[in-house]
Design goal:
A 4-stranded mixed sheet has the order 2-10-9-6. By secondary structure, it is α+β, with helices and mostly antiparallel strands. It contains 29 helices and 15 strands. Among the domains are: 13-148, no CATH class; 161-243, Immunoglobulin-like; 396-502, no CATH class; 688-763, no CATH class. The protein starts with 12 loop residues before the first helix and ends with a strand. The chain is globular, with a radius of gyration of 31 Å. Helix 11 (325-338) packs across helix 12 (343-363) and helix 26 runs parallel beside helix 28. A hairpin with a 4-residue loop joins strand 4 (183-188) and strand 5 (193-195).
Length: 764
């Protein structure tokens, strides 16, 4: 589409209207000639004396050329002798910087072509950033026209940018078409509009597509992406889906269990993707056991489930698991990660108290709005009032603000500490106002028996979290105390006194709050499905939309109507056909990673994996350092990061397989990645070898009981894989046991093989 000629910020409104009329008259001309005509009109306008505006024309040009990006002149120290505000967030400061002297090498109004502001980006002289535009380009002519006019500031009555509209707002592009033209229209405070497609910035969210200047988006492969379109301080997200040519595609119309399937299958049908078949009972059994309790089923539980012929046995199993203590213990681990429960700062007593409080809250299905309010409003002894440990781990007001926003609102504020957020609407003003809410908090350290005198952040002893009148937070820009304030449009004002924490908690958990319910729903969805509807799960923003927006809205509404309780939400998701789909892909969904067309295979988390290994061999875990725990899934804190203490074998294993040190509140800190060292740990590590060789483990018991080779093999398979060996497996392994000179060694080899099998290690 033809971009409109540039509009003079000073006196070009009539010319712009004439140009628009001309564009309408020529609307039937093919696009390329029309585009060239538009450029010609812009050149004519510039030669006619129309001065480009700084804020709406020069600044967007500098942004689109990348001049004010973090890697260039927008970095903290700038580049060379020029420093601009990051992404053009401060046009007034940039104007002052550029026009500090109008007769300099950088900007010469007497001889515009001699200005380094033109010569460097056009590579007439050496420029570390390379050539950004050609000397005969429209960019060069526009910038030159502004310099030639004296590099003037904008008039006081210059309209402000109020909206950015992208057309189309979303699109499905079917083969053989592989590209789409986006059009960006700016709306100003005087109600005028302008096509800014040429000057907007287009950034695809992944490598699936590439963007050309002017808004032409071309796919490199089939799939989905989101294009972030930015002009000045506004940005918009455009979801695009490039569909492969599937002329023989026929929707399979699978049955739907609830509204989750309705929304997921509607998206799959639009994307020409067929869902996989339902998973078998063994897969579902292990999947739901690990997801809800972090533990494997016992042999008796597995046999009972597989022999059950009831049509509702899957939903009945979910109900039983949600009432087991292992459910609360496993999901307490997830919250312990988020709330930074590590013993270096909290100490063992505080960590245990906090874990017990979280576990009991989850077991009672305490509403998550109440759970959140009790945390946010917590004060007092960290030993007597467990939620106060939340603030014990967060020693600065900015850290309290960042963590609270990220955990409970899925909002990452940290970028706004030094500059306005590059991908969201948050400004530095928002950051320091919200941080000021958490100022005036102090700690009465009743005792500190730290083990490392050189580690000033280690605390061993009781503390009391309390509010004080003294405020220490300063806005570095003004050197003054910021006024406390909440974030987001329509947020209410907040008190400056102690009651502000009650007001904060009420605002966070309000039924009308647009994010609280969605963040909690998304976190649960990600734990069950392997990937959030919004991903990363704690990064909600306009430029990171949900993969299935209607489903996100429906789940959040149900969560609120169910009183913010987790168990109904878990039952709902586990009952859906979407949750129960097989991980085996078909030819249409093998590459799908967004739309839940099949289950995503992933390694078991650290604690469930270690507990499952011990369960197979029927061994007790050495948890001397954790007296309240009998399994890895019951360990309250993260202790191994303290350098002054030698970690145990259990702690080393958990660290190796991704248990986080809990230094941040980010979900990303827990790793599910595989590594070569993990392979060595499982295949040749001393810990696994010691477990296999122990005389009193399950292998020894089976031999002492005089079980046959077939009986022993069957028992190991039920324990490790929740199923009996297949006929083919039994035909190979039973003779191997019977013919072995050392039956114990043969059993150790078989058990070792089962513990290293994909079927055991992966959540399928």
């Amino acid at each position: 589409m033809m971009p409109e000629p540039r509009v003079c910020a000073r006196s070009g409104m009539k010319a712009a209207r004439r140009a628009r009329r001309l564009a309408r008259l020529l609307s039937m001309i093919p696009p390329r000639p029309l585009y060239l005509l538009a450029c010609l009109c812009a050149v004519v306008a510039a030669r006619a004396g129309e001065t480009p505006g700084f804020r709406h024309e020069v600044m967007p040009l500098l942004s689109r050329m990348g001049c004010n990006m973090g890697a260039c002149h927008g970095s903290g120290n700038g580049k060379g002798s020029l420093k601009l505000s990051l992404r053009g967030e401060n046009p007034d400061a940039d104007l002052a910087t550029l026009t500090k002297s109008r007769q300099s090498k950088r900007l010469n109004t007497d001889d515009p072509d001699a200005s380094f502001l033109l010569k460097k980006p056009s590579k007439q002289v050496d420029h570390e950033g390379g050539r950004r535009f050609a000397k005969d380009s429209e960019e060069y002519r526009l910038l030159r026209a502004w310099i030639a006019a004296g590099a003037p500031p904008d008039p006081d009555n210059t309209p402000a940018l109020t909206a950015l509209t992208i057309s189309p707002p979303e699109a499905l592009i079917e083969e053989p078409q592989r590209s789409i033209q986006l059009t960006a229209t700016a709306t100003f405070s005087d109600r005028s509009t302008r096509d800014v497609s040429r000057w907007a910035i287009y950034e695809p969210a992944n490598l699936l597509a590439e963007a050309a200047r002017g808004g032409l988006i071309t796919a490199k492969q089939s799939g989905e992406t989101t294009v972030i379109v930015r002009f000045e301080h506004l940005q918009s997200a455009v979801p695009l889906a490039f569909l492969p040519l599937r002329p023989d595609f026929r929707w399979s119309a699978p049955p739907e269990s609830n509204f989750i399937d309705t929304h997921v299958f509607a998206k799959l049908q639009r994307m020409r993707i067929l869902p996989s078949d339902l998973c078998d009972d063994v897969t579902y059994l292990r999947r739901v056991f690990f997801d809800l309790t972090g533990q494997p089923p016992t042999r008796d539980e597995a046999e009972a489930f597989l022999n059950d012929r009831s049509p509702d046995k899957r939903s009945a199993l979910v109900d039983k698991l949600l009432e087991r203590p292992e459910y609360a213990e496993w999901w307490a681990i997830k919250w312990a990660d988020l709330l930074r429960m590590e013993e270096r700062v909290l100490d063992a007593t505080g960590t245990t108290a906090m874990h017990r409080w979280i576990r009991d809250s989850l077991a009672a299905d305490k509403p998550m709005d109440q759970f959140t309010r009790e945390i946010v409003m917590a004060q007092g002894s960290t030993w007597q009032n467990a939620p106060a440990n939340y603030y014990r781990a967060l020693r600065e007001p900015t850290l309290r603000a960042e963590t609270t926003a990220q955990v409970f609102l899925g909002t990452r504020l940290a970028c706004a500490k030094c500059h306005n957020h590059p991908f969201e609407r948050w400004t530095q003003d928002d950051y320091y106002r919200f941080s000021a809410v958490f100022d005036g908090m102090d700690y009465m350290i009743l005792d500190n028996r730290r083990t490392d005198e050189n580690d000033k952040m280690e605390f061993v002893g009781e503390q009391v979290v309390h509010l004080v009148d003294k405020r220490e937070l300063k806005d570095p820009r003004t050197k003054s105390e910021p006024v406390p304030g909440l974030i987001g449009s329509g947020a209410p004002t907040i008190s400056t006194g102690p009651q502000r924490f009650g007001e904060l908690a009420a605002w966070l958990t309000s039924k009308d709050h647009p994010l609280f319910a969605k963040v909690q729903v998304n976190r649960v969805w990600a734990h069950l499905m392997g990937k959030g509807l919004v991903d990363p799960v704690d990064d909600f923003r306009l430029t990171n939309p949900p993969s299935i927006p209607a489903l996100m809205d429906a789940l959040a509404q149900r969560f609120v109507s169910d009183g913010f309780r987790l168990k109904p939400l878990l039952r709902l998701i586990c009952a859906s056909r979407t949750y129960q789909l097989s991980a085996v892909p078909n030819e249409t969904n093998a590459d799908d990673i967004l739309n839940r067309s099949h289950a995503y295979v992933r390694r078991l988390p650290a604690e469930p994996l270690l507990d499952a290994i011990y369960a197979v061999l029927d061994e007790k875990m050495d948890l001397e350092k954790f007296p309240e725990a009998r399994r890895a899934g019951q360990i309250a804190g993260a202790r191994f990061i303290i350098k002054s203490r030698r970690p145990s074998t259990v702690e080393l294993f958990l660290k190796e397989f991704g248990k986080p040190p809990r230094n941040t509140a980010c979900e990303c800190e827990r790793s599910n990645a595989s590594s070569l060292s993990q392979i060595f740990t499982l295949t040749s590590g001393p810990g696994i070898d010691k477990l296999l060789r122990k005389e009193d483990n399950r292998l020894g018991d089976l031999l002492r009981e005089g079980k046959s080779a077939a009986e022993i093999l069957t028992d190991l398979y039920w324990r490790a894989l929740s199923r009996p060996p297949s006929e083919a497996e039994a035909a190979k392994l039973v003779p191997a046991i019977e013919q072995s000179k050392d039956r114990r060694t043969a059993l150790e080899d078989i058990a070792w093989s089962l513990l290293n099998s994909k079927e055991f290690l992966l959540r399928r």
